[in-house]
Amino acid sequence: NPQVSPDGVNVVFVRGRMDGSREIGIMDIGSRNIKVIDIPGAFHFSPQWTPDGGYIIFSSDMEGSQRLYAYSVQGEKLYSLGNIDATAYESSIWPDGSVILFTGYSADGFDIYAADLSEEFFIEIHPDAEKHPESKLEIGAENVVKDKRRYSAFYPLLPKFWMPLAFYSSDAGWYLSATTFNSDPLARHSYNIMAEYYPSYGYSGVSFSYQNDLLMPSLGVRYRYIPVRRECSNCSGNKNYWLREQGGTAYVQQLFRRFRYSWTLGLHYSFTGYNFIDPPVGGLIEYAGAGAEVFFENAKSYDFTPGRQDGRIIALGFRKYDKSLGSDFAFNKAVLDYREYLTLGRNKVLAMKMIGGFIWESDRGGDNLFSVGGITPRMDETLFGLDSAYMFLRGYPYNVDVGSKALVFSAEYRFPPLKLDAGIKTFPFFMRKLHFSVFGDYGKAWDNTVSIRDFRASVGVEFKWDNTIIYHYNITQSLGFVKGFSRDGISQFYLLLGSSF
Hints:
Oligomer: single chain
Structural class: mainly beta
Strand content: over 45%
């Protein structure tokens, strides 16, 4: 944190020491001579000159918590700022030297504070140097660590919590689930486990994902053994049925990260089997394919914005299903997911999404189709993937349209959020913010030809509630109401985990 003195003669800076702490130095620009301030080594940072150059104000934890201190350049004395009884980090001094601004932390989170800066509040201190001794480390055989062990990620990866969730859908009733996720301290391994249960039907399932970032590129697997509720619009009698979906995906992907954007290139192999469990008709249907995907993102998200803004997300994927890969059928499948986030004034966002899919060279006719319609409680902010042929269209029943081609547009105007930042003592559930949006959906799935008049439209409102659980993990819960205005349109309330996009 180099800072030039008001007279342009000296530079104050922070540098690291061999014992891991920091020290503050003052360098004479002309002679390049360096003087180290005689204070204990600690976590010092953000040194600032007072306008007259008489003091250096800096943040340090030399007495325990991070506080602001003043060092007299001429008198070589150390003072604490007695009028600031708060944790303090970065600071900036008003041009006339009368006020100091600093970032601080309290029960309400981070904020910017202002306090008077005057010598009358300076309290001379003599910190205990024994708590922060000077480094005596020398490179040599005698300094070899005796209790040296290889890094192990096993115990840090063990589950630390299970988060229970409950959802309701009009066709499947209440559905219960529990989820956990974790990663090791070096982020070499990460995983997610979710279990679910439908009490009204007695069906249960589990899904699991794991990614290894030890190597470049990353390697990962996903597995699911879950019940899936389907509605058949063209079937006679009972239109609802249950499938058992079981299968997984193995993938390799490379992330290219830059300051303002990132993009990912990936290759994968996927295997999925479907078995009718209610009614129990037909045998196991298997799909297996390999493909690639490209993902680009430069959208940003801030603490007081209603989700993402100022950017876009683009994902393009292709998969080829073939009998030589273990599939019962052969066909090609491509999907495009494009999302744009425009900022319209302070913390107001217009979010737009277009999802399209195309299936060709199919040997299965009526199957292997995209499904448009309905809302699933598994919806979240992840991208529409090749593993599913489902595209949500709020305000219509599940599978209201099926076809080898599909296109769905969504637009949401998201209002500024209401800041909550409240919790109940140390209970591991912290309420961040509430935000509200109005939206419209417009989409269709088809086989041969389609016209604009065939597309289905709906409008609705949605309330989102952002929370932090287990002191670290951020989740969003959404409650909405939607009305479909085209043929087969319905009015419905819905509750889901995550955001629409």
